[in-house]
């Protein structure tokens, strides 16, 4: 396997919702709690989980939208969490983000050409006379026509806007792109177009992706390895083929089973989880999936599972696999 | 036959022209049946459901056709008559369960209000019924949760409350507009399961509006595929997935990333995008994006043709029966 | 062959799209505004007043400050359209001269409160936390005192004069602008495109000026338009109390204040300045309301 591009070590992000009179937190939302994983160069790492599991928070910490409470983000040997604001901003050109909502992520008062040119100008990557050409090239890359550059975002459809968002992310020639559910707001027929585009661009520019999604089916197509998150914790990491053919964690099994089968038969035996995801505010100690797990036994109570490698490259955090 | 929609037309008068959001569609729905209308944004699926409910808002207007509910034309009813039918015989659940519940009232007040208006029950009876309904839709300790405000509940819980509210007056028809779109996969499975059981329990018909073919395959009995305001294909769910006819339906099915798909090939794509509703192509609305487009498709709009209960709007299937006869 | 044909229509339809000029938000706003009769009336009146303020001296029949005691309290008529005041000055000329004063004071006062308010509101809204608390609590303290009382207090500290009136009126309405700007920024700040601006490496100041403020500009413009009418009214009030413009300068509020003793003997000395004030305030209010409706998509038709 190629070298590691980014390594996340014991990363945590807490939000203090309420504090007492002395400023001591009384209510803490643990959005991400002690998560470690690494992404290799040229790889697409899928991060899957339901809303509130912390997957987006991890993405936002990578692109400096949130400051981690604890832990390290080591990017090509540099720990980004220890840098000054000024130096940290310098890494913007290496790590970019594609947003979920193509309607909200483009400034409505800027033309598409300006939106794509802005990151180049700010990071002073090209002399101003070459920017024009670069924008044309980028528009071309994402399948938009050059004559569309002077138009405003509201004149475009959702799929086209997402293409603009992708071009903006590509403009700084990043090494890592965090794709935060880039297709979930798009129509079905457009989703495939955007997924294929992302796949092509990855080959063409040698990009590395952190691909965040809430469903395992979307991630399957694009990722090489997949991590599954639940309530701020990573519960399983495995190479794609391994994860889909041999899911170990009960939650992964339930997620896979919950994806509707598209076809004439309704034969599949489904695991329907009971109840809701518990609130990430003051979450339970021990295994966080306990309250909904269909394989829970008395021994699970109070047991704190660790993420362990059970077969090469396959990590899982569950008591069931700790006994051996 | 519970609901019969004939040649329904709903148009939106905009500054730059008229958008035919629903353009001459007809379908029917039997008691106890789940009929899904699938389509992408702009296909007119939601406007169809709003037309049936009589909730189309300015600048939209139902301009033609009839909507027969138990033999009576809903379009001929006045406002107060429609109000009496809505929530009583026809109920609706929406995509976003947060905005469809009033944030300043407790759950119980909202359910009881609808029960008391439509079923003429006393306050005590309404309370009992409300708790009973919350219990049926699977809310744990319903008597206590009924005193919660909407914001104290999760998305899945709120959708259950909405369902409980919609079902509280025993409607004969439930219109579910994207009921699971805002929910997580594991919660979506719960709600679909719930809809399926409620249908059996109350022998109620469901009109399920969705963009997700997965939801269709899980829950529906019969499916209508809409594109640009028109029905392009209609069949029972099994036939639709086994013998897909219209190139659009086929394209949709092929472009969804599948779990069981092991290939590393790029996904199938439907090229281009939905045409601007103000500048519809003259022929078939899908012609610009279709793999099998013929010259004729650009000139004229194909009719909806029916064969063994399977309806499709495409020239590809126009001549087949004759040819089949010839072969015999 | 078939394939080539298949591609042609898309090309031509794209060409058709290019020819259509993109509709800017400004143009859309104007279209919506032009349907609003009240707002257009307001705009026409304001334009008229502005022209009067600029070219007034050219059409004034008399010197507004020229006093001819032999002609005091002349009834409105052909010679003096609006009559003369107790000092024999032509009221028509004085009203025209007052237009310039009122509009100048209104605009400059709004300019002061707008600039300071936008800066304070932006800082408070964008940085949040303690900075926000300190700035906004101070604004709250200012809001707790009735604005006209505060303006009088400022005048007392600064002394009389038109320039001081401008400063006093400007200062007292800072909190309103700061509040509105802060509120807008708080709502715009959470938008993905503001976060996107951070992700591509923008500095905070650039994010505020390039990405946030242009998107809250519309609300600020509306508030400023309505603010001019308040400022005009406040100027008149200060003038009425004898604190604003110093004699003999013609100021509507001052005219009103000096004429109030003659309300029964020579009502026209009061009526015309009163009409001028009402008309100006009304025009700005109508335009402001129209702008708000035009900018709010909820009110916009289609």
Automatic annotation (TrEMBL), chain A:
InterPro entries per record: AAA+_ATPase, ABC_transp_ATP-bind, ABC_transporter-like_ATP-bd, ABC_transporter-like_CS, Oligopep_ABC_C, P-loop_NTPase
Source species, domain of life: Bacteria
Alphabetized GO MF terms: ATP binding
Signal peptide: none
Pfam families membership: ABC_tran (PF00005), oligo_HPY (PF08352)
All copies of domain ABC transporter, residue ranges: 6-256
Keywords for this protein: ATP-binding, Nucleotide-binding, Transport
Protein name: ATP-binding cassette domain-containing protein
Automatic annotation (TrEMBL), chain B:
InterPro entries: AAA+_ATPase, ABC_Ni/Peptide_Import, ABC_transporter-like_ATP-bd, Oligopep_ABC_C, P-loop_NTPase
Protein localization: Cell membrane
Molecular function GO labels: ATP binding
Domain of life from the UniProt record: Bacteria
Record membrane topology: Peripheral membrane protein
Presence of keyword Transferase: no
Domain ABC transporter: 3-253
The entry's keywords: ATP-binding, Cell membrane, Membrane, Nucleotide-binding, Transport
Pfam families: ABC_tran (PF00005), oligo_HPY (PF08352)
Family membership noted in the UniProt record: Belongs to the ABC transporter superfamily.
Protein name: ABC transporter ATP-binding protein
Source species of the chain: Caproiciproducens faecalis
Upper lineage: Bacteria, Bacillati, Bacillota, Clostridia, Eubacteriales
Automatic annotation (TrEMBL), chain C:
Main location: membrane
Protein name: ABC transporter permease
Record localization: Cell membrane
Organism: Caproiciproducens faecalis
Domain ABC transmembrane type-1 residues, every copy: 99-288
Pfam families: BPD_transp_1, OppC_N
InterPro entries: ABC_transport_permease, BP-dependent_transpt_permease, MetI-like, MetI-like_sf, OppC_N
Transmembrane segments: 38-59, 101-126, 138-158, 220-245, 265-288
Sorted UniProt keywords: Cell membrane, Membrane, Transmembrane, Transmembrane helix, Transport
Membrane topology: Multi-pass membrane protein
Protein family (similarity comment): Belongs to the binding-protein-dependent transport system permease family. OppBC subfamily.
Residues spanning the signal sequence: none
């Amino acid at each position: 396997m190629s070298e590691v591009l980014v390594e996340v070590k014991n990363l945590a992000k807490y939000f203090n919702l309420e504090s007492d009179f002395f400023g001591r937190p009384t209510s803490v939302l643990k959005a991400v709690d002690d998560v470690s994983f690494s992404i290799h160069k040229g790889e697409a790492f899928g991060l899957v989980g339901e809303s509130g599991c912390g997957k987006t928070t991890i993405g936002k910490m990578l692109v400096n939208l949130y400051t981690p409470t604890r832990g390290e983000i080591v990017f090509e040997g540099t720990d980004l969490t220890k840098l000054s604001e000024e130096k940290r901003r310098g890494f913007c050109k290496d790590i970019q983000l594609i947003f979920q909502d193509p309607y909200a992520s483009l400034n409505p008062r800027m033309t598409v050409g300006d939106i794509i040119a802005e990151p180049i100008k700010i990071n002073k990557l090209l002399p101003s006379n070459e920017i024009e050409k670069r924008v044309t090239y980028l528009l071309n890359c994402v399948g938009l026509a050059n004559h569309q550059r002077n138009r405003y975002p509201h004149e475009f459809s959702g799929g086209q806007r997402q293409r603009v968002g992708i071009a903006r992310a590509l403009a700084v020639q990043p090494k890592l792109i965090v794709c935060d559910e880039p297709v979930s707001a798009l129509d079905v027929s457009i989703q495939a177009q955007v997924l294929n585009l992302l796949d092509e661009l990855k080959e063409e520019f040698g990009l590395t992706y952190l691909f965040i999604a809430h469903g395992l089916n979307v991630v399957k197509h694009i990722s090489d390895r997949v991590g599954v998150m639940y309530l701020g914790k990573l519960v399983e990491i495995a190479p794609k083929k391994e994860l889909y053919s041999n899911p170990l964690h009960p939650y992964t099994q339930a997620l896979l089973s919950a994806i509707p089968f598209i076809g004439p038969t309704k034969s599949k035996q489904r695991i329907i989880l009971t109840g809701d995801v518990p609130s990430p505010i003051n979450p339970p100690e021990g295994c966080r999936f306990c309250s909904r797990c269909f394989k829970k036994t008395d021994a699970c109570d109070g047991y704190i599972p660790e993420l362990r490698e059970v077969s090469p490259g396959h990590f899982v955090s569950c008591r069931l696999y700790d006994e051996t | 036959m519970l609901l019969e929609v004939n040649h329904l037309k709903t148009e939106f008068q905009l500054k730059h022209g008229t958008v035919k959001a629903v353009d001459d569609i007809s379908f029917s729905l039997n008691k106890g049946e789940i009929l899904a209308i699938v389509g992408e944004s702009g296909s007119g699926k939601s406007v169809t459901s709003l037309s049936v409910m009589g909730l189309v808002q300015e600048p939209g207007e139902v301009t033609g056709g009839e909507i027969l509910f138990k033999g009576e034309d809903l379009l001929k009813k006045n406002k107060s008559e429609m109000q009496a039918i809505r929530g009583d015989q026809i109920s609706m659940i929406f995509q976003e369960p947060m905005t469809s519940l009033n944030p300043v009232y407790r759950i119980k007040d909202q359910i009881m209000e609808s029960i008391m208006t439509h079923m003429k029950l006393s306050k005590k009876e309404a309370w009992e019924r409300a708790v009973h309904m919350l219990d049926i839709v699977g809310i744990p300790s319903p008597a206590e949760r009924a005193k919660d405000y909407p914001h104290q509940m999760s998305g899945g819980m709120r959708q259950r409350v909405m369902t409980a509210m919609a079902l509280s007056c025993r409607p004969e028809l439930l219109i579910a507009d994207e009921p699971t779109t805002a929910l997580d996969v594991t919660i979506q499975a719960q709600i679909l399961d719930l809809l399926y059981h409620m249908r059996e329990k109350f022998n109620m018909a469901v009109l399920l509006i969705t963009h997700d073919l997965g939801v269709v395959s899980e829950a529906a009995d019969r499916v209508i595929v809409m594109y640009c305001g028109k029905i392009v294909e209609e069949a029972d769910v099994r036939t639709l997935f086994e013998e897909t006819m219209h190139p659009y339906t086929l394209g949709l099915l092929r472009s969804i990333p599948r779990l069981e798909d092991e290939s590393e090939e790029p996904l199938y794509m439907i090229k281009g995008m939905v045409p601007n509703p103000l500048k519809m192509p003259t022929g078939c609305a899908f012609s610009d994006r279709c793999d099998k487009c013929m010259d004729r498709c650009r000139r004229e709009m194909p009719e909806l043709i029916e064969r063994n209960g399977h309806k499709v709007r495409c020239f590809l299937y126009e001549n087949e029966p004759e040819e089949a006869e010839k072969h015999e | 062959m078939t394939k080539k044909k298949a591609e042609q229509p898309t090309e031509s339809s794209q060409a058709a799209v290019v020819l259509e000029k993109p509709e800017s938000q400004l143009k859309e706003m104007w279209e919506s505004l032009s349907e609003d009769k009240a707002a257009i009336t307001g705009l026409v009146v304001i334009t008229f007043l502005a022209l009067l303020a600029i070219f007034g001296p050219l059409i004034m029949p008399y010197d507004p400050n020229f006093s001819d005691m032999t002609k005091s309290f002349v009834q409105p008529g052909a010679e003096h359209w609006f009559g003369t005041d107790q000092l024999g000055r032509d009221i028509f000329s004085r009203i025209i001269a007052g237009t310039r004063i009122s509009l100048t004071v209104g605009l400059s006062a709004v300019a002061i409160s707008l600039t300071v308010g936008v800066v304070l509101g932006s800082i408070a809204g964008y940085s949040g936390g303690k900075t926000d608390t300190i700035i906004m609590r101070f604004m709250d303290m200012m809001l707790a005192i009735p604005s006209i009382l505060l303006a009088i207090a400022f005048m007392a500290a600064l002394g009389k004069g038109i320039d001081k009136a401008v400063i006093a009126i400007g200062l007292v309405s800072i909190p309103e602008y700061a509040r509105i700007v802060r509120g807008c920024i708080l709502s715009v700040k959470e938008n993905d495109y503001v976060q996107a601006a951070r992700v591509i490496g923008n500095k905070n100041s650039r994010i505020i000026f390039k990405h946030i403020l242009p998107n809250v500009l519309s609300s600020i413009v509306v508030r400023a338009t309505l603010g001019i009418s308040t400022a005009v009214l406040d100027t008149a009030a200060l003038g009425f109390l004898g604190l604003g413009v110093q004699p003999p300068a013609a100021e509507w509020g001052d005219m009103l204040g000096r004429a109030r003793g003659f309300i029964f003997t020579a009502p026209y000395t009061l009526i015309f300045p009163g009409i001028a004030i009402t008309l100006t305030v009304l025009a700005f209010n109508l335009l402001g309301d129209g702008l708000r409706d035009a900018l709010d998509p909820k009110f916009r038709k289609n």
